[in-house]
Request: fold
Amino acid sequence: MMIRILYLLSKPENMSKEQFDAECLRHFEMSEGMPGLHKYEVRLIASEPIDLHVPFFDVPGVDAIGECWFENEQQMQTYMDSEIRKKWFEHGKTFIGKLKPFITKDVI
Reply:
């Protein structure tokens, strides 16, 4: 079963949306060949539609959603131990103001 870590990302208050979006693209490009990482996706928030069929809760300040995919726990550990991943996270510190991670599981 695939393991996924989902991240809600907020830009620093002093960073423009354009700069943040450009850094997200750079971060995505840097993920190429990351040991243990099966797939990385990043989605920029374009708008926040209001869907009234059920009550919703506000999650202020989310500028992007990132998701890391791993084939199994061993691959996730390979990723976590990788020096390349540590450098990738250092880049993330330069443009991510705050984040909230979730490890998700599929509904089967």
Remarks:
- Residues 34 and 100 are 21 Å apart (CA to CA).
- The helical segments are 17-30, 73-81, 83-95.
